[in-house]
User: Which sequence fits this backbone?
RNA sequence: GGGCCGUUAGCUCAGAGGGAGAGCACCGGCCUUUUAAGCCGGGUGUCGCUGGUUCGAGUCCAGCACGGCUCACCA
């Protein structure tokens, strides 16, 4: 598909645009000028003046200098209508030879759809009532050297949309809205935590030991120090060091990198919100999660219900809470007693996911959970107390030492959040790491590495702390009703063409 | 990584063994309140790439590339 870049052969339409560029240059016109003073944007004009009547415009003679990209042209002999757009709206303009002069009208005929120009003119309403700029003069701001996709369908080809996101944004206004929504979610999330006395921090993206999650890392190398580094898979261990240091409420919104497969729910780099609050446990985290997501929905969407595909998702508090093992037997149909048969469960997991082994008991339960439970949880659901052995950084549950004080929040069948009462005992943390190391030796590349520096930090005293990670991309998917993560990431990872 | 599907004009797509099509866009002409403007004229193409089958391949077969869905893993 990628056969028309600047180095390859040009299409007839690109050649035609090149010819127009040369003609305009020969007329002494600067097609890529430095600066222009404008009075309004397209969307400012629309919001400020749409409600005025024809008579208002005749009386007030509102003059504007407005820039925008030309997205349509209707030429009618010695007069033309066209639409200018910015990323939030489009505005019609009218240009007549008897207003701009014969010479300028000829120059205008060298304008293409896609060019960026500025108009100087007076607002009026046409006889069909459309707000329009009566153009008195115009100035080129940038020439567009490629034809734009057609006006009815926009750009549909997914590969092209992701590879040329700039073009996608020009011709598909609904795509712009998704990213405005994403921006609002992040902005209001910051507001939510800032108002609660949290401080936002930035911790390293390059880790000597990748930790805080169970995933395969990307590896890189620092020349001057002569050391291998890993792109972080989670900021968790650094954020908890900060709590040790007395920063009782911290959060970070930033990228994580996991060297795993790409799918509709996975991009190798993705945005994670992580927050930690001292003197809290996982129950407090559940309350705060309900509050945050409910707040985002009310504030940004103005409602507590979200349409997602064929589902209506209610974000009204409180949300369902179900124990991991209860969810397992309820949705898998496996009798609760059967879960005590550790060998049998491991065997079942091996048939469900043969590539994934070797299995520990806890990991086998995880596989069964992903297969039978997760897809059924559409309404927001906290799945609490998963097996301790797949939660090496979480406190054990006092009532049941095999379970962790941890939850996963599932919405629309996706894991949106993961949180726990943080494990604060350095000796127990060392033991958990050692157990993970054994699994690593048995061939599980995703097991946690031993991080003695982190254990040393814990030895200074981490107060009881609740911590949580929320996958921002997936949250945006739910809010924007998008079924693939590529629709909420501006530049998703693609294999290079050619 | 496995399975299934896709790749034809700038864009959106049709064409399923007999030599390349439509709409928009584009090019030429007409047109001073149009808006999916209209009217007249013009197809602008390495049918993803490489091989094979065939008298003949966009069409059938194989391999490759990229993408999509899905399974597996992770958030």
Assistant:
């Amino acid at each position: 598909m990628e056969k028309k870049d600047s180095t390859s052969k040009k299409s007839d339409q690109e050649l035609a645009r090149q010819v127009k560029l040369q003609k305009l240059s020969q007329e002494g016109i600067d097609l890529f000028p430095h600066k222009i003073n404008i009075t309004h944007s397209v969307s400012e004009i629309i919001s400020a003046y749409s409600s005025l009547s024809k008579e208002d415009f005749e009386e007030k003679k509102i003059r504007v200098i407005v820039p925008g990209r030309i997205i349509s042209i209707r030429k009618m002999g010695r007069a033309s209508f066209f639409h200018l757009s910015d990323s939030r709206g489009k505005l019609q303009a009218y240009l007549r030879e008897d207003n701009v002069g014969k010479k300028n009208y000829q120059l205008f005929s060298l304008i293409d759809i896609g060019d960026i120009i500025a108009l100087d003119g007076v607002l009026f309403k046409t006889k069909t009532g459309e707000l329009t700029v009566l153009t008195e003069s115009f100035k080129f701001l940038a020439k567009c050297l490629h034809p734009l996709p057609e006006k009815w369908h926009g750009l549909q080809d997914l590969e092209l949309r992701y590879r040329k996101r700039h073009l996608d944004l020009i011709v598909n206004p609904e795509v712009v809205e998704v990213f405005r929504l994403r921006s609002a979610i992040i902005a209001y999330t910051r507001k939510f935590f800032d108002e609660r006395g949290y401080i936002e921090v930035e911790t390293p993206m390059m880790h000597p030991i990748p930790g805080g999650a169970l995933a395969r890392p990307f590896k890189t190398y620092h020349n001057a120090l002569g050391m291998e580094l890993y792109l972080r898979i989670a900021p968790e261990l650094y954020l908890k060091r900060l709590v040790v240091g007395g920063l009782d409420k911290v959060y970070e919104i930033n990228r994580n990198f996991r060297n795993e497969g790409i799918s509709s729910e996975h991009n190798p780099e993705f945005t994670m919100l992580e927050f930690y609050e001292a003197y809290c446990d996982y129950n407090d985290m559940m309350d705060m999660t309900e509050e945050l997501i409910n707040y985002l929905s009310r504030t940004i969407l103005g409602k507590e219900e979200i349409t997602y595909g064929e589902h209506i998702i209610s974000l009204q508090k409180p949300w369902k809470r179900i124990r991991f093992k209860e969810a397992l037997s309820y949705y898998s149909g496996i009798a609760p007693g059967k879960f005590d048969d550790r060998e049998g469960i491991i065997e079942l997991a091996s048939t469900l996911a043969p590539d994934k082994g070797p299995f520990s008991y806890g990991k086998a339960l995880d596989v069964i959970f992903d297969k039978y439970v997760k897809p059924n949880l559409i309404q927001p659901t906290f799945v609490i107390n998963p097996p301790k052995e797949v939660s090496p950084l979480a406190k054990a549950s006092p009532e049941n030492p095999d379970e962790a004080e941890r939850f996963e929040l599932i919405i629309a069948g996706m894991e949106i959040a993961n949180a726990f009462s943080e494990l604060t005992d350095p000796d127990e943390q060392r033991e958990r790491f050692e157990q993970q190391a054994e699994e690593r030796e048995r061939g599980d590349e995703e097991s946690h590495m031993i991080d003695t520096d982190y254990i040393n930090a814990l030895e200074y005293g981490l107060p009881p702390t609740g911590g949580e990670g929320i996958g921002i991309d997936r949250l945006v998917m739910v809010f924007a009703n998008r079924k693939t993560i590529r629709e909420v990431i501006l530049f998703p990872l693609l294999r290079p063409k050619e």
Observations:
- Chain A has a mean pLDDT of 92.
- The two ends of chain A are 10 Å apart (CA to CA).
- The longest helix of chain A spans residues 173-195.
- The longest strand of chain A covers residues 63-76.
